[in-house]
Amino acid sequence: MEAHFVDWLLGRIPADPRLEVPPGDDAAVLRPPPLRRTVIAVDMLTDGVDFLLASDEATPERIGHKALAVNLSDLAAMAARPEAAVVAVALPRERAAEIGRGLWTGIEPLAAAHGVTLAGGDTNTWDGPLVISVTVIGSVLPGAAWRRDGARPGDLLVLTGPCGGSLLGRHLDVRPRCREAIEIADRFTVHAAIDISDGLSLDLARLMRASATRGEIELHRVPIHDDARRRAAIDGIPALDHALADGEDFELLLAMPADDARDLVADPPAGLAPAIIGTVTQGAGICGRAADGTPLPLEAKGWMHDGDE
Ligand SMILES: [Mg+2]
After folding, report:
1. What pLDDT, on a 0 to 100 scale, did the predictor assign at position 2?
2. How far out from the chain centre does Cα 295 lie?
3. How far away, in angstroms, is 300 Cα from ligand 1 center?
4. Who is most buried in 49, 56, 168, 208, counting CB within 10 A?
């Protein structure tokens, strides 16, 4: 199956001037954009952990889309421009060809939409579950990458869109904020950034720990996705809790100087509805505040990976 599938795949990858040697050789050769730094991220998705192939909703197409999209979201969190990707898959033996083609069908349009050239990959079949690992390569001007460790007391915290309830389907239809991030980086000062992969409160805590600052969230200002309200109606857990802890929203959380934050919210990139949700202060950890300023407990909750803190 493998040689046949790889031939099929190679026939579908459009030529790209960034590849001095295209896929099909022992390795691809990428021409890095002049005067820019190379940004690299990798993320591996496993059946049973990140999706359920046996479910009706997790088609190979949507899984392929998600595998590239979550990586692009990490580039967005660095304000990096996507350039190339390499894809490694372990396919369950009995449906290998069908799943492999489905994955590609999901990857290809997203790669095209974000200007990503497929620089290569590896295909294996085995008796285990579907595993797909995507490595993305991006570029950014020297010193211009957003980082987690730059938030400063006095910054405002901006969330690029509503959170919560992604498990109702959005977790498979991830829309990485690459274009929006690059526009924000062009127009505004951003001191620190992270993408919301594991949960708003947990990723906020990570941002604050990296910056050695404290995050105070005005809980009534957290934009709540309709999906969070739908989940709340199903499980009785408040929609705000879903927004704070569900994860896989893939919005961006930005720490910005107050004037830049207000200007961004007043005139955001097309299609983006950012909201100021809190303030960076001196100290450590995170806390919530009610509309009248009363402090409220805020736990860092979300998806914890094995080996996490
Ligand atoms: Mg991330």
Report:
1. 67
2. 30
3. 16
4. 208
Domain boundaries, the chain: 2-140, 156-296
Distance 98 CA to ligand 1 centre (A): 30
Domain 156-296 - what CATH class? alpha beta
Element (H, E) at 68: helix 60-76
Phi, psi of 132, rounded to the nearest 5 degrees: -130, 130
217 Cα to the center of ligand 1, angstroms: 20
> Rounded to an integer, what is the distance from CA 177 to the centroid of its chain?
8
CATH superfamily of 2-140: PurM-like, N-terminal domain (3.30.1330.10)
251 touches 175 (CB < 8 A): no
CA 194 to ligand 1 centroid distance, Å: 6
What gap in Å lies between CA 18 and CA 32, rounded to an integer?
Answer: 7
Compute, in angstroms, the gap from residue 91 CA to the centroid of ligand 1: 26
Query: Over the stretch 75-98, which tens digit does the pLDDT of each residue have?
Result: 999 999 999 999 999 999 999 999
**Centroid of ligand 1 to alpha carbon of 249 (angstroms):** 11
pLDDT of residue 14: 86
pTM score above 0.85? yes
CA dist., res. 111 & res. 116, Å (int): 5
Quote the pLDDT of residue 237: 97
The pLDDT-based confidence of 308 (bands split at 50, 70, 90) is low
Q: Tell me, what's the pLDDT at 175? A: 96
Query: In whole angstroms, what is the distance from residue 263 CA to residue 19 CA?
Result: 39
